[in-house]
Amino acid sequence: MRNTLPMSSRTSPISQPITIRRAVARDAKRLTRLVRGSGAYEGKYAAAVAGYRVGPDYIEAHRAFVAVGADEHGGRVIGFYSLVLAPPELDLLFVADEAQGRGIGRLLVAHMQSEARAAGLDRVKVVSHLPAEDFYHRVGAVRTGTALANPPAVPWDRPTFEFRIPSE
């Protein structure tokens, strides 16, 4: 059974300090658990992440960042993203189920846009998971098309988006 917060807490803004830092190799298992444990990948979507692994090699190869929330244990990874520079793509973005609805995803997207700008990118592509489509609309991504199914790993079409990164 999943631990859940009352709805009033789930939809409230961030109430604890959130720190975003570069992911390190020791985060790999936590990030893998976030991906595999995501409620957005239950049921018919479960097969897409069943064997998925975020390894230390992946973290080293890409710009991966984690959102850490303060708690009684001194901090816990509650979300992360990975920015691939060539070609520019937001490869992964996950927020722990119990932390969703508090602005953490929006905070991660803003951080990603800042990193993309610093890297000289003007656009970042996203191939969205179907349940995340509304989120990407809300954080300013523009729908650009559809990524066709790629069975057996992903047997459904997915919306594609683009973040346009204005220069400062």
TrEMBL record:
Lineage: Bacteria, Bacillati, Actinomycetota, Actinomycetes, Kitasatosporales
SUPFAM superfamilies per UniProt: Acyl-CoA N-acyltransferases (Nat)
Protein name: GNAT family N-acetyltransferase
PANTHER family: FAMILY N-ACETYLTRANSFERASE, PUTATIVE (AFU_ORTHOLOGUE AFUA_6G03350)-RELATED
InterPro entries per the UniProt record, alphabetical: Acetyltransferase_Butenolide (IPR053144), Acyl_CoA_acyltransferase (IPR016181), GNAT_dom (IPR000182)
Domain (N-acetyltransferase) ranges: 18-168
Highest taxon of the lineage: Bacteria
